[in-house]
Amino acid sequence: MLETLEVLEHTLGKAASLDDKVEAAMVSLSASGYTSLVYDYTPVVRSFEGDLMTPSHLSLRNVPDDMRALWCDAGYYQKDPVQLMAIRSTTPFIWSYRQTRDKTQLANFIRQDHEPVVSYLHDADLTCGITVPVHRTRGDMATFTAIQKGAGRQFVKEAREHLAVFGLLGQVFHEHAYPLLSEEERRTGVIRLTPRERECLLYSAEGLTAKEIAYKIGRSVPTVILHINSATKKLGARNRLHAVMLASHYRLLDE
């Protein structure tokens, strides 16, 4: 596995696009017996109300064609026990949906409402894998997951032998992948503010009045109020303070 990490670092440095980097990672993982790869990035892990957010970027390799639509559009991401584990874990972990055969912590996260995901992965024979959670200082998060389709009886035992190195592999991949994410992918796609709306909220967060903001940006007070009201409506906020809180939560005020 150490050889796989060395090879991956070299090939990732040469790969120009994010798609090429994902392909390079898949080739390296294949050498260790893994058949599928999932990499996702989420700028905001949970909504202001506490619901799990759908990732802004999702790369998939060697999975069923309908998986992207199910996870991103049909709500399967919110019902994925592995994602719930990743949010709570700072270290790589092994997971298996073969609960009668393998003993992993995944069993502690599976609930009745996760049944659509559990059934889907059993039908696709994607029941065993390793996930590396990458928690960043601003609260954003990525996960790097390798899956072994048709995993053998000794999967968990064998995976434990190189779990630490696999954790490094996931971290290295994300460091190479993150700079290639688009600006839109680094911000939540749930709400879109115009540059002026964002600017006015930024100054509001600093405690400036509408009159002071108008002086700062060289616009009239009614124009500033219009921008703030528009942002407040988009955010579904009750007032200006609530709008600033929501915008900050969704990282819309990040420089």
From TrEMBL:
Transmembrane among keywords: no
Keywords: DNA-binding, Transcription, Transcription regulation
One example GO MF annotation: DNA binding
Superkingdom per UniProt: Bacteria
Residue ranges of domain HTH luxR-type in the record: 186-251
Cross-referenced SUPFAM superfamilies: C-terminal effector domain of the bipartite response regulators (SSF46894), Pheromone-binding domain of LuxR-like quorum-sensing transcription factors (SSF75516)
Keyword Cytoplasm annotated: no
Pfam families: Autoind_bind, GerE
BP terms from Gene Ontology: regulation of DNA-templated transcription
InterPro entries: Sig_transdc_resp-reg_C-effctor (IPR016032), TF_LuxR_autoind-bd_dom (IPR005143), TF_LuxR_autoind-bd_dom_sf (IPR036693), Tscrpt_reg_LuxR_C (IPR000792), WH-like_DNA-bd_sf (IPR036388)
Stretch forming the signal peptide: none
Record Gene3D superfamilies: Transcription factor LuxR-like, autoinducer-binding domain, Winged helix-like DNA-binding domain superfamily/Winged helix DNA-binding domain
Protein name per the record: LuxR family transcriptional regulator
Organism the protein comes from: Roseibium marinum
